[in-house]
């Protein structure tokens, strides 16, 4: 029997003692936490084994920062484009920005750090050709070319923390003061940061775990003048910039960064951009600084006898859990928001910490916990989606956040969370620290490699754009499947790391960091992959893999994939190969096809390509054998049970391991089988909320018919199936 208590953290709030006590007993919670905007009473703190207290390093300290406003955090912003109609033009730099959040930097000389660019030609204008009017917040440019467009890249102070702003708007906090973030790179801020924490640790003696939310720099997020998000990149380093940071960088790397290195033509170096060497250098520079300064705070926490936990969100930039310097911070734990299986694995796989914790959804906020809505629906979807990944690599704890008083108003939700907590404890007690069976090793190659493990194509916390859900489905499928996943950069491939994997996946839109963009102009890279596949490797391309127009090809690996994309240049060349095959290993279990956004004008390049799905003049699914190797092309793969099975079959086909598919496998795409050799157990898991009857196969491929209730897990001794 597993314990009915432990491994669960719940929120509470002041004046809610008795109900908190009841829910602690019902759910078996051993940890209590506060949330942004709540405080814990001392009596409540005595109810749990572990008390978490949220700690904001660089915000919620307005008394300090208002005395040192030159140390407010900054970023580079790009003005709206203005078309000149004469040889002069005026650019109002704050047009479209929210003055409650953004304030132009008037402390450092604009002509030294700001840039005016002719966006029609890309030419940087000499700083002598423009002046800035502080009163009007306007740049006046002379000597311009009529009917060209111009922009100003300018430094601005961030005078309202983006997360507090979001919570302020969402929860209608009214006249609550706006938190102003300060920059710990600055002299006074750095000293204040350490001194305040020392005092805080003394005053919060009942706190067991200091939950840093997070450290210093927020991901890039700024709003428009209607209080709507204007730009958000959960991976963006835009809010780490300051004149001192630029100066310190130049001393280390020997060259000076420009505004354009951050604004990046208006794309703000989003995670979808192929990163330049200059930007990668800057990211490394920030990661090293953040890790060093964070270690100072963590040491203070440890010296006080408390644990140090980092929330993977808000001000997480520079910590990079899969980066080179993360281990030097010395954290005890990381907690993050779990939106799906991909984010679960992103958290549970983090190295160099003693334990990980997942904050599950829904957040106990009024946008979900309101009259007429049933939060149990979201909770069930969240749990069943994430549970697939837990079966492969569990987090060590689960938890929830928000206002407990709101959640307690929904009895069905309260009862469902009790079941979730008990089921998690049972899973963890059975498989924690046990390697599950894997049949194939899969490598995912993109411009980020290991640094973005389990993070491709996401916006934040499992959110995605319409244009990328066809690719995020790849990670979501893999998060709960019997394969080992390795994240590779293009440099890793160049250095010979293809030998570590059976199958290589390249997925994404052309030009993005995930497809690879200009990396595919490297003939040596292409030759290495060609050789590896022809000598027996497996390749899966999804969307626009290896796409860059060059030398008569769009997909630079078209010879391996068997398909290319028509750009209009080869319309005069007939394309005869359109007939799909009647049957194939990949499609044996398919009842419906969903290629998401898909692609248009994909065609088979020769008769050696086996087309498996052809519709509206485009190939959506195809395979090819070349030399001793195999490839699979899929036009898009949004997550659903059928597509997860299609990907699993594609992986086994590409790896020449079709026979291994029906080992620890189910013929129902909604049911999966996980095997834990050292535990001598297997788990048959129903990922749907409906009853399912499936034929499941053991390690020898012997079938057995099982019926599972909605969401049920059946544990069996390994020899029983």
TrEMBL record:
Domain Lacto-N-biose phosphorylase central residues, every copy: 442-658
Protein name, UniProt field: 1,3-beta-galactosyl-N-acetylhexosamine phosphorylase
Entry-linked SUPFAM superfamilies: Class I glutamine amidotransferase-like
InterPro entries, sorted: Class_I_gatase-like, Glyco_hydro_b, Ig-like_fold, Lact_bio_phlase-like_N, Lacto-N-biose_phosphorylase, LBP_C, LBP_M
Record Gene3D superfamilies: 3.40.50.880, Glycosidases, Golgi alpha-mannosidase II, Immunoglobulins
Residues covered by the Lacto-N-biose phosphorylase-like N-terminal TIM barrel domain: 6-438
Top-level taxon: Bacteria
Pfam families in the cross-refs: Lact_bio_phlase (PF09508), LBP_C (PF17386), LBP_M (PF17385)
Single GO MF annotation: 1,4-alpha-oligoglucan phosphorylase activity
All copies of domain Lacto-N-biose phosphorylase C-terminal, residue ranges: 664-715
């Amino acid at each position: 029997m597993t314990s009915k208590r432990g491994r669960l953290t719940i929120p509470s709030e002041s004046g809610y003692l008795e109900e908190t006590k009841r829910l602690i007993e019902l759910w078996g919670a051993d940890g209590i936490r506060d949330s942004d905007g709540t405080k814990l009473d001392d009596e409540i703190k005595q109810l749990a084994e572990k008390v978490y207290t949220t700690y904001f390093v660089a915000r919620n300290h307005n008394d300090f920062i208002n005395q040192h406003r030159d140390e407010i955090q900054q970023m580079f912003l790009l003005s709206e484009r203005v078309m000149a109609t004469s040889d002069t033009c005026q650019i109002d730099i704050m047009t479209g920005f929210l003055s409650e959040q953004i304030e132009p930097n008037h402390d450092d000389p604009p002509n030294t750090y700001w840039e005016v660019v002719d966006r029609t030609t890309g030419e940087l204008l000499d700083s002598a050709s423009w002046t800035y009017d502080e009163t009007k917040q306007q740049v006046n440019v002379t000597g311009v070319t009529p009917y060209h467009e111009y922009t100003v890249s300018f430094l601005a102070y961030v005078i309202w923390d983006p997360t507090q702003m979001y919570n302020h708007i969402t929860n209608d906090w009214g006249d609550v003061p706006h938190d102003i973030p300060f920059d710990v790179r600055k002299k006074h801020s750095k000293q204040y940061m350490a001194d305040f924490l020392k005092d805080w640790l003394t005053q919060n003696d009942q706190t067991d775990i200091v939950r840093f939310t997070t450290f210093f720099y927020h991901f890039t997020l700024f709003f428009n003048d209607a209080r709507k998000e204007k730009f958000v990149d959960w991976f963006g380093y835009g809010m780490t910039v300051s004149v001192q940071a630029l100066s310190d960088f130049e001393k280390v790397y020997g060259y000076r960064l420009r505004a354009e290195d951050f604004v990046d033509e208006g794309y703000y170096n989003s995670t979808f951009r192929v990163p330049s060497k200059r930007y990668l250098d800057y990211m490394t520079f920030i990661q090293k600084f953040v890790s060093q300064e964070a270690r100072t705070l963590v040491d203070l926490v440890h010296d006080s006898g408390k644990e140090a936990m980092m929330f993977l969100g808000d001000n997480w930039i520079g910590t990079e859990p899969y980066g080179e310097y993360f281990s030097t911070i010395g954290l005890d734990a990381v907690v993050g928001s779990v939106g799906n299986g991909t984010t679960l694995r992103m958290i549970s796989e983090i190295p160099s910490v003693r334990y990980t914790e997942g904050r599950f959804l829904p957040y106990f906020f009024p946008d979900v916990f309101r009259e007429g809505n049933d939060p149990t629906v979201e909770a069930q979807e969240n749990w069943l989606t994430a549970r697939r990944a837990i079966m492969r690599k569990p987090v060590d704890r689960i938890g929830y956040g928000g206002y407990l008083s709101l959640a307690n108003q929904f009895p069905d939700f309260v009862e469902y969370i009790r079941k979730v907590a008990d089921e998690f404890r049972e899973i963890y007690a059975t498989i924690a620290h046990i390697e599950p069976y894997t049949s194939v090793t899969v490598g995912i190659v993109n411009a980020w490699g290991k640094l973005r493990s389990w993070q491709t194509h996401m916006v934040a916390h499992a959110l995605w754009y319409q244009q990328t859900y066809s690719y995020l489905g790849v990670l979501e499928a893999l998060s709960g499947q019997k394969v080992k996943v390795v994240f590779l950069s293009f440099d890793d491939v160049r250095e010979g790391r293809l030998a570590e994997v059976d199958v290589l996946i390249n997925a994404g839109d052309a030009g993005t960091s995930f497809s690879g963009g200009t990396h595919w102009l490297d003939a040596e890279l292409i030759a290495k992959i060609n050789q590896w596949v022809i000598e027996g490797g497996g390749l899966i391309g999804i969307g626009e893999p290896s796409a860059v127009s060059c030398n008569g090809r769009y997909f630079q690996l078209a010879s391996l994939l068997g398909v290319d994309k028509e750009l209009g240049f080869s319309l005069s060349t007939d394309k005869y190969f359109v007939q799909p095959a009647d049957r194939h290993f990949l499609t044996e279990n398919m009842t419906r096809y969903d290629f998401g956004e898909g692609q248009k004008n994909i065609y088979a390049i020769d008769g050696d390509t086996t087309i498996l799905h052809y519709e509206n003049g485009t190939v959506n699914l195809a395979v090819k054998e070349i030399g001793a190797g195999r490839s699979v092309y899929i036009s898009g793969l949004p997550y659903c049970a059928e597509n997860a099975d299609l990907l699993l079959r594609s992986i086994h086909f590409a790896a020449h391991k079709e026979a291994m598919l029906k080992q620890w496998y189910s013929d129902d795409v909604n049911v999966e089988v996980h095997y834990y050799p050292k535990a001598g157990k297997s788990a048959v898991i129903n990922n749907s909320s409906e009853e399912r009857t499936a034929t499941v196969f053991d390690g020898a491929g012997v079938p057995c018919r099982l019926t599972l209730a909605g969401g049920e897990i059946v544990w069996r001794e390994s020899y029983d199936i």
